[in-house]
Amino acid sequence: MCEDIFVYLFGYGSLMWRPGFSYTKKFNAYIKGWKRVFYQGSTDHRGTPEAPGRVVTLIKQPEETKDTEEWITWGTVYAISDDEALATLKNLDYREKGGYERHELDIYLDEQSMVSYGKAIVYLATTENEEYLGEDTIDNIAQHIFRSIGPSGRNIDYLLKLANSLHEMGVVDQHVFDIEKIVLELMDRHQINHHNSLVENLSLSSSPTSSMLSSINSLVVNGATTTGTSGSSPGTNSPLLDEKALELLHRHKRFYMKPQGTVIIDQGAVQAISQRAKSLLPVGIIGFTGEFESDALVTIQDSNGSDISRGLTNYSSKELALIIGKQSKDLESLLGYFKGESVVDHTNLILL
Ligand code: BEZ
């Protein structure tokens, strides 16, 4: 009898809620001697090169503390069939190119077990990588996350998705939960919710004050479009926004409005858009709900109904009904005109 051969991949960050690859099974497990921390800078997903966001990596437990403290980190293990592992890891190498490298660590299944279940591949960013930000107070990390945003979306969404995955698993991660608590308080104080507004990353050397954040927030909520640009004195509406920040703000504010519909996509499309370099093609769409015009905001879900992304469509729901599941090369003959090969361009989507 032929035994299935798997490669195990341990996810402790975004892989927990958005793996973006197919797997044979998944289960919870932990690693020993490592701690999940928001010490890695993100210049390509949750921040920009000018103002990096903060995402998680793992730090190794110092030898001298091993007798007194136990460091464990819970995460999700994916069993990937051997024949898909190479392509999956290649895709992840690209997605996690911002300082992360592959390591192999022992995984454990329950807190009593002394014996490793096996080895798993783990992506971690070491202190030597260029984007490493390192330690800071919990308050500073929370404020940093609160004001950061990048091409993949808001840093707060990354934090809240991570915290939520851990709450659902029923495990405690004090570092993550302490930051979550402060960020939720900040969101509450500035009336920022999950969908209708965002704060802009401002390349500030110090944390923004409440009044700064309020003015940024009201700018987004009110949809203001004019303000000071670099080289001129800042406008009264938004004394903080430089040209780059304003452009990012403009590009992102629509993603936090109310979506007009939902587009459901297959696993291949999830993988493609999770890399951020690929657009959503009609061939990857398996369903949609709602009535919307072109240029509408839609939620993008996987086939399990999990929200993966939000994006602006090139095609209306009426057009989508005609091209769903079709090859891009056939769009012109199906519609009688051509509005682009993708339903959502990769530059017009954020990841959740
Ligand atoms: C993770 O979920 O394990 C992960 C994701 C991105 C970078 C590093 C780790």
TrEMBL record:
One of its GO terms (biological process) is glutathione catabolic process. GO terms for cellular component: cytoplasm. InterPro entries: ChaC, GGCT-like, GGCT-like_sf, PUA, PUA-like_sf, PUA_sf. PANTHER family: CATION TRANSPORT PROTEIN CHAC-RELATED, GLUTATHIONE-SPECIFIC GAMMA-GLUTAMYLCYCLOTRANSFERASE 2. It holds the Pfam family PUA. Its EC number is 4.3.2.7. GO terms for molecular function: glutathione specific gamma-glutamylcyclotransferase activity; RNA binding. Residues 261-344 form the PUA domain. SMART domains: PUA (SM00359). The keyword Metal-binding does not apply. It is an enzyme of class 4 (lyase). Keywords: Lyase. This is glutathione-specific gamma-glutamylcyclotransferase.
